[in-house]
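Lab notebook: predicted structure, single chain.

Context: the supervisor wants predicted structures on file for every construct in the current expression panel, including those that have not yet been purified. This is the next one on the list. No modifications to the sequence; it matches the entry in the shared construct table.
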Amino acid sequence: MSIKGQLTASRDFLMAGMRAAARGATPNEHAAQLVRACLDLVEHLVRQSENVTAGEVETTLGVLHHAAGELEQDESASAVLAALRNAIGRMQSLRTEITPTK
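Prediction complete. Output recorded below exactly as produced.
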């Protein structure tokens, strides 16, 4: 899969997380804010997909992991957490693909 394709897939997972945060009897504002911040980072990478570096992917992964850690404590955010973990998996695949071999 291309770099842009992997970034787009991550973005799509995060968009699903945004929809999940908005659903339910009480929308989860905290989860929505976390996913929105992650989505902004990934959208920035999508716009510059031809020049994405391993460092940028690593930084974005750190933010995604931090957000997932915060959401693990929130039982009402299980669907959001699942979407976030899917995005993390796609970004990890991208990191493996673009990291130079030694």
